[in-house]
Write a structure and sequence with these properties.
The protein is an all-alpha fold. Helix content is 81%, strand content 0%.
C-alpha cells in the first residue's frame, strides 16, 4: 500500500471553481445568518409578549380571586340574614299563638266580670288590652317583614 495515494477519493478541483463554490457557500451562510437573526428577533418579541400576557393573567387571577372571596362573603352574609329571618318568623309565630290565647281569655273574662269590676280594675284591664294590641301589632310587623311578598303579574 505504499504506492497508493491516501487521498485518492478527493478530486482535484480547479481554483476558480473552488472560489465560486466557497463564495456560494458564504452567501448561503450570510443568508442563513440573517434568517437566524430575524428568527431570534421574532423569538425575543414572542417571549416579551408571553411575559406581558403572563403578567396580565396574574393580575386577572388576583382580581378574580378577590371577586370570588367577596362574592363568598356576600353569600355567607345573605345566608346569615336568611337564617335570622327564618328564626324571627318562627319566634314571631310562636309568640303570636300564646298572645292570642291571652287576648281571647282577657276578652272572655272581661265580658263575664265587667259588671263586678270597679273603675280601677277596668282601667288595668284596658291597659292589658292595649299592651296585647301593641304586642300583636309588633308581631304582625315582624311577620310582614320576613314574609316574602306575593308576586303580582301585570301585562306590560
Amino acid at each position: 500500500m505504499s504506492g497508493v495515494n491516501p487521498y485518492f477519493f478527493i478530486k482535484e478541483v480547479p481554483t476558480e471553481d473552488l472560489v465560486k463554490i466557497l463564495a456560494q457557500k458564504i452567501k448561503e451562510l450570510k443568508s442563513e445568518k440573517d434568517t437566524t437573526a430575524n428568527l431570534n428577533l421574532q423569538l425575543q418579541n414572542t417571549v416579551k409578549e408571553l411575559k406581558n400576557t403572563q403578567g396580565e393573567l396574574l393580575r386577572n387571577r388576583k382580581m378574580l380571586q378577590d371577586e370570588v372571596k367577596q362574592k363568598t362573603e356576600d353569600l355567607l352574609n345573605l345566608e346569615r340574614v336568611s337564617l335570622l329571618g327564618n328564626f324571627t318568623a318562627r319566634a314571631a309565630h310562636d309568640l303570636n299563638n300564646p298572645l292570642s290565647i291571652i287576648k281571647n281569655s282577657s276578652q272572655i273574662l272581661r265580658i263575664n266580670l265587667d259588671k263586678h269590676l270597679d273603675e280601677k280594675s277596668k282601667a288595668q284591664w284596658s291597659r292589658l288590652d292595649r299592651a296585647v294590641a301593641r304586642m300583636s301589632h309588633q308581631i304582625d310587623n315582624v311577620l310582614g317583614f320576613v314574609k316574602p311578598p306575593t308576586l303580582e303579574r301585570k301585562n306590560t
